[in-house]
Amino acid sequence: MKSLNFLFDISKHFLKDEHLKSFFIDVKFSLKKNKKSLNEINLGSSCEKYLDKLMQQRHKDVITTIRENCLAFYVTAAEKIRKRLPVKNIFLSKLNVFRPSIVLFESDRKTSFNDVSFVIKTIGGFDEDSLKKEWIALPLDLTIEEKESLSKLNFDNMWKNILKCQQIMLQNIQT
Length: 175
Prior knowledge:
single chain, mainly alpha
């Protein structure tokens, strides 16, 4: 997911908005029709201030060259990110199902379990029926306050605390 976010962060500086949808990873970055105009490319405030100074000094040709070079950098960076990082890895994209927003707050548990199922089938060695029951019951076993608190933790601590909550509930049931 971070690879995809990184690609998005680079691409939003030079791609037209209509190409920044969820399928933008398949866009041809080098096509002129997919890119913003040179003056619309986001170069950052420091660079823009520098270009403003150059404009005041009447160096329009230098400004154009800088913008073209920055655009070429963005395009190359986006192409290299897409080529070298796992932006199209289905398994990694399915792991998003374990993010707090889905684990704790997703109401359509049966649909989100499809991604869990994909992950466990890829890894192997899990009882899918038991895991499905746990997945569907998980948010029901937690109060809103507990969910809010868990969602603020890092990934590992969130899952450790969820496990602790489940162990406490099992102990209460057995006694």
